[in-house]
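Colleagues,

Please find the record for the two-part complex below.
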Amino acid sequence: MEETTLNNDIHVKLTEKFGEKVTAVSEPYGFLTIVTYKDVIINVLSYLKEELKFNFLTDITAVHYPGKDHGIAVVYHLNNMVERVRIRIKVFISEQNPTIPTATTVWKGANWMERETYDLFGVKFEGHPDLRRILNMDDLGVHPMLKQYPLEDPNRVDKKDEFFGR
Amino acid sequence: MNHNHPVYTDNDPQSELVTLNLGPTHPATHGVFQNVLQLDGERIVSGVSTIGYIHRAFEKIAEHRPFYQITPLTDRLNYCSSPINNMGWHMTVEKLLNIQMPKRIDYLRVIIMELSRIADHIICNTIIGQDTGATTTFLYLFQFREHIYEIFEEVCGARLTTNIGRIGGFERDFNEIAFAKINKFLKEFPVALKEFENLLTRNRIFIDRTAGVAEVTKETALEYSWTGPLLRATGVDYDVRVSDPYSSYQDFDFEVPVGTSGDIYDRYLVRNEEMWQSVRIIEQALVKLKTEPKGIFHADVPDFYLPPKQEVYNNMEALIYHFKIVMGEIDAPKAEVYHAVEGGNGELGFYLINDGGRTPYRLHFRRPSFVNYQMFAPMSEGMLLSDAIINMSSMNIIAGELDA
């Protein structure tokens, strides 16, 4: 109950500050989730960090929804350690041109998280100091977490998915 | 300093710097870590970390596996404390399904999780001792990790990659031997830990090697998203068990130890104190268990909890449930959920998006080792090579978790 009021406060403040740019507010399992746009994402993150005391960047990752206009969601998880609130921020970006400003200007720790997201999803973080692959080899050529890449070699005949209930 | 690319100076006869390829299979790095270091004498000028040597694409595999088949993947993240990962994953699914857990299971889980935390910290702290030249301490305390594994063996049958528990509880109740082993451990471990502390904590050589080495301020640690004992050693009292209690941790009375300077000595002290606190938590859990109804070891969720094997062979209903669960035919809410647990080396988070299919639409692991390790190369600059080695051991980076 208390958490819900807190989440409301944060939502009200964000709407005051960014108006239309903050949309689709929801609270799955009490976890405040907002959707915003890539032109204001750095402002939103800095505002949350400086004004609303979300001092801790928990995680950056991405999700791929193939076939949509904005098919890649970059997801940020922030944590306000003092008031013990978490917030999730999503930015949907185009699959053809997946660019978004880097969060390394706000948190240095974003560096490797963004490199991982780039490696797995091909999201290009503009202004990142060192945007290289981190887990996969440099000449892999694809960004393997995108849904069009199958888990195993599709030409194998001995491991058809339907035999394994997948 | 440019961190982007390793600089090899071996071909340059004029250079006074030496390039050292530390790793990927160096005996002093305790795992598959590669750092290309530029050395000026014994001092590190710059370093570049290369990771991914044991990348196994767990997040991709998880998108093709039903919930139960993901548990063995989590084993192989931080394999020094697999039960924490297993239970973190099970609790994530339980949160998604809104399952209310009976208290007794929470307490049993707390016992197992705290035992794994002790095992994890034993490894880290004794290795710091080992790397500073104190092999004795390593040999004294390390046998207790073996005793913890014997308890795991009694509970689930496995030792290292435990695959312990089920969605909704445990596969079977703890038997008498398991409780006897836990009690024996609680009696013997504090004595050994005290002895371990007597050997190291006020040891002049150990203090000289660790105190004031690799100091990190609170601000830097938060900036780099450090969690776990590393963050607490800098003086920030952030512990997921307290700030976001799961598995009934709010019922327990324990302290969150913090350091002041964030150096290696503080990290060692914080881990030691956490082991004492873990012992306290286990003792409390055993007392609390006495007041709980006996024999409950799983929640009443037949749709998600695998039925006992005997019934599967002899009972039609159980067979149907078994089939549906194993094939991922169960209906789970279409939702997204983030659940974090305090792992051995920091906040271990599971970000699960379920779209109603057999398998998760997306599962992301927030791995503390991965996030913590990115500071290793920048902070090694200006450090002696031998200090950088203990710094790495004290960060408790587990290669399986780093590379996922």
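Chain A has three helices and seven strands.

Comments are welcome before we finalize the supplementary table.
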